[in-house]
Amino acid sequence: MSDKWVYDFSEGSKDMRELLGGKGANVAEMTRVLGADRVPAGFTITTEACVAYMKADQTEPEGMADEVAEALERLQEHTGKRLGDDDDPLLVSVRSGARESMPGMLDTVLNLGMNDRSVEGLAKATENDRFAWDSYRRFLQMFGNVSRGIDGEAFEQAIADVKADRGVEEDTDLDTDALKALVDRFKALYKEHTDEEFPQDPQEQLRLAIRAVFDSWTGDRAKEYRRINRIPDDWGTAVNVQQMVFGNKGDTSGSGVAFSRDEVTGAPEPSGDFLPNAQGEDVVSGARTPRDIAEMKEWLPDAYEQLMDILKTLEQHYGDMQDTEFTVEEGQLYMLQTRDAKRPAQAAVRFARDAVDEGLLEREQALMTVDAEMLTALLVKTFDPGANYEVIATGVPAAPGGAKGEVVFTARDAIDAAAEGRDVVLVRPDTNANDVGGFHAAKGILTSLGGKASHAALVARGMGVPCVTAASELKINLEDKCIRVGERTIGEGDFIAINGTNGEVTLDDVPLVDPTEDPAFDEILKAFETVLGWADDVRRLGVRTNADTPADARKARELGAEGIGLCRTEHMFMAEDRQPKMRRMIMSGTRDARKEALAELLPLQQEDFEGLFEAMKGLPVTIRLLDPPLHEFLPNLPDLAAHVERARIEVSADLDELETLLETTERISEENPMLGTRGCRLGILYPEIYEMQVHAIMRAAKAMDEPPHPEIMIPLVDYEHEIELMRELVVRIGDEEGLHEIEDYTVGTMIELPRACFVADRIAKFADFFSFGTNDLTQTALGFSRDDVESKFVPVYMERKIIERSPFETIDKPGVGWLVRLAAWVGRESRPDLKLGICGEHGGDPDSIEFFHMAGLDYVSCSPFRVPIARVAAAQAAIIHANDRSWADA
Amino acid sequence: MSDKWVYDFSEGSKDMRELLGGKGANVAEMTRVLGADRVPAGFTITTEACVAYMKADQTEPEGMADEVAEALERLQEHTGKRLGDDDDPLLVSVRSGARESMPGMLDTVLNLGMNDRSVEGLAKATENDRFAWDSYRRFLQMFGNVSRGIDGEAFEQAIADVKADRGVEEDTDLDTDALKALVDRFKALYKEHTDEEFPQDPQEQLRLAIRAVFDSWTGDRAKEYRRINRIPDDWGTAVNVQQMVFGNKGDTSGSGVAFSRDEVTGAPEPSGDFLPNAQGEDVVSGARTPRDIAEMKEWLPDAYEQLMDILKTLEQHYGDMQDTEFTVEEGQLYMLQTRDAKRPAQAAVRFARDAVDEGLLEREQALMTVDAEMLTALLVKTFDPGANYEVIATGVPAAPGGAKGEVVFTARDAIDAAAEGRDVVLVRPDTNANDVGGFHAAKGILTSLGGKASHAALVARGMGVPCVTAASELKINLEDKCIRVGERTIGEGDFIAINGTNGEVTLDDVPLVDPTEDPAFDEILKAFETVLGWADDVRRLGVRTNADTPADARKARELGAEGIGLCRTEHMFMAEDRQPKMRRMIMSGTRDARKEALAELLPLQQEDFEGLFEAMKGLPVTIRLLDPPLHEFLPNLPDLAAHVERARIEVSADLDELETLLETTERISEENPMLGTRGCRLGILYPEIYEMQVHAIMRAAKAMDEPPHPEIMIPLVDYEHEIELMRELVVRIGDEEGLHEIEDYTVGTMIELPRACFVADRIAKFADFFSFGTNDLTQTALGFSRDDVESKFVPVYMERKIIERSPFETIDKPGVGWLVRLAAWVGRESRPDLKLGICGEHGGDPDSIEFFHMAGLDYVSCSPFRVPIARVAAAQAAIIHANDRSWADA
Known about the structure:
Helices cover 45% and strands 16% of the residues of chain A. Chain A is an alpha/beta fold.
């Protein structure tokens, strides 16, 4: 701990956040860059002073008072104004500023320095009596409440009394006289509650205000906030004392906001709004219509030129687009705030490209300014940002983009509607593999259950279909084909629109905008291509796609995928012409009968693979053998039970058949199918299934002109002997088909169970590659059933700060991440040339991609529409960790 | 690799298993202990010779032939007999002997040395022409088949021809002449197939036989066996050449088996059977009735005395009860085999106690002779070992003991029958928490699904109720209340008996024996108590019990439990008077309504805890707050769906109510409840439930005279913040009730998710203890749903040697064990006084207990009836690892 308790803004910098708090460090940095005249001056009392104060039972540390007095003196000298002056008084704000923002939790006092004399000075300086007296009464109110704990109600009551006296309704109707009367009442209130006179001495005001801010750190609200947000109690808060400037001091004053470039398109011209003779809140409140920043040039040409220079300076200093607030006080331009500008995807790629062209940034720096997560927006239609609409429900934004159309409740109806050219939104409580056909046909998907990683979300995201899940306000009744939400009922064919970017659902016909239809978009697309090209140069991670169909595969290749990291073969059995065959196979009681049923599926599977190989033109294609439990191909059990009950009562002709189906479904159904008879367990129990699939892969490979690179993946391995047996099976079929391991195909495994990570060295002896199935690894390592928990306790857990994000969105590093690193490590120890990839949903999540880069993986695989995100995120990971010694090398 | 290829038996020992194979090492050890005259002499050709032979393309290594010739010469000198002698010829056996036993896979040749001359010598020596010629023809057959690959069919055909010639039916009807004719035919067969004469030279016979044994190592059958059993191909087999001795050489010859003590009771007198003038196979074949070993004293007093001495010597040498085979050849006693005797529990404890009393063993050595797993047999009735019965089905022996009675299909029926004093066996496809009432009422439990760790198995074992699970031959139809098995149908009220010790099911009224009714059992019980007392002195691990009722708790204390390691509070809500209240709570839409329903459960819970505290008399009681997903308290969904469908068709009066129930059940049901909304997730979503339970615990504690030690356990923690929040809840209620943490109660967590193990250091900051829930940890780490997989692929996995035992029976060390060790380690790093226990089913499994000892845990907790097992197993672990440096100290 240092002995210095107070820092002038000109002494600090953005690196002193712990000592000066976030606000203090930021204003100091801006002062450093722009000079002391451009930023309202002031000083910061350190967090250490607060800590010392708390430790000493609410006593200021020795020397602090003197340092504050000296800093105040310097402030008065610098501004040429004095606190309490009756001509043009110095007023200051006294604000808290903790290391982490705690919005609204700590106290603030504005207009400090007001007293019976300076109120007159302010009136003179602003030529606005009412403003001066209103400021005074506001200061009295805030000061009394904050520093002496006088109940806000008492002040409100006094205001109400005066309004009643004067017969007016609104605060704004109180004239200067009324405000003067209120000032008297407030002073009386202060006396009454504190037994002291309101301190006219601004030094005394300042001392009390600083104590009040310190004290607010240990207030109940703040403590509760810190507990919930897990901010340590012993950090303390800094206190910032800053000159107040006024944009409402007449025609040469004003306030505004300015961006260093167009914040919507990214075009290289500053943009923004300003209002003459106004304070900052007037610009954003909407009470007056602000004017375009360009018009400021005529009104205050000097200040305008200065502002333009400052924007350039700030952009260069921070190396990014800036979003600023400023005030002009009697011709003098003050910068109040600057921060990196939030921007939509098009502005992000445009800025990145231009910044390099302009020599502002190096390519790698420019790449770091892009928020990879947002890039999908460049590929889909979205709600018109200017549209107004009534939100009837909000769910989880599961796949970005806007969609609208008639409500349908079944995949079948969606397909029929699409055939008739109608736009539909498929609405279901949740979805399963049977619904996938409907995903292609629908414009959007809406579910009341699930979450960001539920089946609907995964599939929709992979297809680029907008999707909202977990819209739990919607009560969806499939039987009656209606949705109830509050008092409303929405039926089949009714209009609905969903915004997959923010999770909103509306019944209004919101206009959709297609970014590619915008003529300006040509420039954006060029910039996008340029930035992606740089990303490819920089990244070490490969980027593949998860794709089950040739259409998905082609789309992904267009977007830059370097192979297929996961083809889920089960999706191929869900098609309408195949499901009966699949079901017949499952219902077979003997191996021979199963083989017969499988023989019919073989040529169809072969076609599937030929389509994929064709689409990928010799790039690697990882094919996972059948993974899901077989009952996924059978009807839903409760529905079937009800159906059979009805058939029994009605003595239906097909009762026998139905009862057999029910019996099989009951026998095959499992308590916890996620942990049941699936993955390679099926391959071991029913080798004929995997044999058929491997034959289909081999034959498809032989049918290609350009030899493909099939990578055959065995799912759900726990024990090395499982992969050993399954590898034997594959190689045996390979021999039969005349193809050779390594040369013509490779065999690997999905690592998706914790046990597999512990014995990865043994498993690697039989695997040419590992692909981490982080979805299932998350389910097992955390004991979270994805479909069950996303809509149930995950939202509550986020609210209570138990978790920050769903572990299905961003990889859980301490648990799942640990397992991935362990398996990567011991797997490579055992087999140094082991190829490592990841094909869970995390493969498209930027934070997770950074982790996979660090873990030394070779590639990530993600949904087609997330391929650009992954390319950029992989580049960013490589840039951030360029100088790290890789953990994998260690 | 050494240069010595051949070892005489007198040169080897039991430690040379790798070089001499199992059989060679054992016979050498016996020779060493008893001297060269007591064991038929011989020599072993090493496994290394076999390896060299294989490497050199079926060529004997240099020097081997000479060493064999020398060894044979020594053998002939030692025995005073010569191969091929026409007086009293030496005959030898040539047997394989691999490092691991491969029963039936490798070749053996007996009676080697037979030829046209020595057959006469053997006839003379045994005064038995027929025996000599039969031995000759058997040798020809075996030698021709084994060493020259002549098809066995050809020999069988020749036998059939001779029988037809002579007009006899059986092999045994062939007289000496017929056998002589057969010898001629066999020699002709040999010539025909090999183009060579049958070798009359015994040296040549020996050379060919040794090659044949070597070659059998690389035969297809053996290779397949090794692949399945994962025995390395490059181990090779040894070859043992041993003098054959004959117990059928007249009145001073004979064969027998002898135990060093009574193998059934453990009483300290040798027991066994013998037959004069007979070979070993005659004793065990049952063709002649053997005589008690005591009678041998009169017949061959010298040999008898020698045998008694030898039994003592062997017992002392091996430090355990011995099970031996012997032959007397013309008055000379030969010991053929000795091994540690298999014995039932009563003999095991009796021997252990007596061996110490006699000074044969130290206490710790004696403890090591007891098979802990078997001890439960001392506590339950069993099928009479002598009973004959027809087995109609065999399942998994899930809880030991025999039970019989009328078949009932529901818990309700079991309870009603018990009230009427009828004995019943509860038969169901599987069971769930709703059936627990019926477990108490039934004599035994039989299920067609599940496995050794299914719900039925766990609960039955905990209660000491015999149980057979996974009897998959039984088709149980609950609707028609019948069991179909093959052609039979068994209905309600029909008689059934089950043997939970070996998994057999029968319809016969098998007598049950209660060991405690045996007057001799008094002695056994005393020995049992003594042995358990020694175990308690030696073990470091504490032993607690899993118990949910005062009755279980009392039983466990009687059996030595030192506390309750797991009380599952949910079982308390399954009782008939409580389930409606629980259901009302779940159906409540608001927190207040839930609180109201819970208020009714509070006094009942308090009573539950008072009962437990009372039973445990101040010993620690670990109480787990509600863990299972709430839908476990609601009806089965498919059944309910069918029920509602019926109600709809019939327009039942209670349709509305049923539909509401269906809606709630559907909403609450989960795809994978194991990974769903349960454990502390419930506590966070519905804190009022845990609040009620904690109030009940605290109030019960206050109501006790003797202060109890409640340990409140939070289940299913993943994140440190979960336990932090739940600890806060407990302490808050504690404050309300005026009780203090640590002093009056402690708070800990169940470690049952992989993630929790990785962050155990953080979790430990809020936990006074960890209890490993290894059942759920196995389910998640391996992705094995216990109820689903035990009956489905686990048996197939065992058959295919992917796993040796169910991971729910014995802890999976590489996966689950790793997690336990990690969590124990980092948990203690963070909190050195952290108490560590384990309360999964593994807590009662001896192998797992050894692991937990090594992992540094403080205690194991198991079902009441397994407490004695755990006490002994814990002692054995401490003995085995007495000199290990503990991993936890490292």
